[in-house]
């Protein structure tokens, strides 16, 4: 009996030792398998990396668009092509490009307004000429329908006297207004004289005055 008990104890100790060994062995990680799996699996980009890359690309596109806009302004605005002496050959800053663009737009607005005023004036002149044309056509038509005969007919001398009286009146104002110091001053004075002394109402008054003078001489 004592031998049987010792053998049983030895067997129990061996079995527990084997059990502990197998458990310890199973708990040890298989580093060889994990290393092989790590090297074989491809790298996957994380969501954070994708967002960062998309943000960098969008920011680069925005900067490229802004740069292209400023380059286009420098190519379109004439004053941006002129380099100031204070700047030299340095590239124009964005602030200077914007300011020159604003100045050029304001200049274009003024030129547009000036041209619109000139067009309006020309339209009025055209309308006045059309009215004069209609009146002269009516006068010619009436004269052709009732031609003057005998003593009522105006002589060529009388027509010359009317013309001479009108031109004398115009020359008086012309001589008083025109300066011949230089050709540039002469040109400026001529246009000024035309605008001031050759208005339709002024010419009408001159013609009426000349006709009254010649009528008083005839009768």
TrEMBL record:
Location(s), subcellular: Cytoplasm; Nucleus
GO CC terms in record: cytoplasm; nucleoplasm
Region span, Disordered: 17-53
Biased composition (Polar residues): 17-30
Origin superkingdom: Eukaryota
UniProt domain BHLH: residue ranges: 50-108
Stretches that traverse the bilayer: none
PANTHER family, per the entry: BASIC HELIX-LOOP-HELIX ZIP TRANSCRIPTION FACTOR, MAX-LIKE PROTEIN X
Subunit architecture: Efficient DNA binding requires dimerization with another bHLH protein. Binds DNA as a heterodimer with MAD1, MAD4, MNT, WBSCR14 and MLXIP. Can also bind DNA as a homodimer.
Protein name in the entry: Max-like protein X
Lineage of source species: Eukaryota, Metazoa, Chordata, Craniata, Vertebrata
This protein's encoding gene: Mlx
